[in-house]
Amino acid sequence: MMEKGRYLLAKRIREHRAARGWSQAVLAERCGIDRNYIGAIERAKHNVGIDTAQTIAEAFSLSVAELLTEPRLIRRPLKPKRQAST
Q1: Which DSSP string do the residues of 51-66 spell out, in sequence order?
Q2: What is the distance in angstroms between the CA of the first residue and the CA of the last residue of the chain?
Q3: For the chain, where are the alpha helices, taking DSSP H only?
Q4: How far is residue 55 CA from its own chain's centroid?
Q5: CATH superfamily, region 5-68
Q6: What are the angstrom distances between the C-alpha of 2 and each of 5, 64, 70?
Q7: What is the DSSP letter of 81?
């Protein structure tokens, strides 16, 4: 089952913020959004409008699509099995 949008957004914001070592206060300042509101978004307590999502994405130098996209595992192709010599 796919995550609801606000839960996915909350998770992705936390991940991006943590990866940069930013506090909620730093993100809030970069966005011009109250720190308490950032905290509520990260707890999925608010449905966020597209303009706010764009403001947050831009603080991370991302598009909204990139902000919402979960990273995919990079899978290397399997090496062919060696055939046993007879």
Answers
A1: HHHHHHHHHTT--HHH
A2: 49
A3: 5-20, 24-31, 35-42, 50-59, 64-68
A4: 14
A5: lambda repressor-like DNA-binding domains (1.10.260.40)
A6: 9, 18, 12
A7: P
pLDDT digits (tens, 9 = 90+) for 5-62: 899 999 999 999 999 999 999 999 999 999 999 999 999 998 899 999 999 999 999 9
Q: Which residue has the tokens 């991370």?
A: 60
Kindly state the helix (H) or strand (E) to which residue 70 belongs, with its residue range: none
Break the chain into its structural domains and give their ranges. 5-68
What backbone phi and psi angles, to 5 degrees, belong to 75? Answer: -105, 130
Torsion over CA: 57, 63, 69, 73 (sign): negative
Chain centre distance of CA 8: 7
CB 57 within 8 A of CB 69: no
Tokens at 59, concatenated: 């603080």
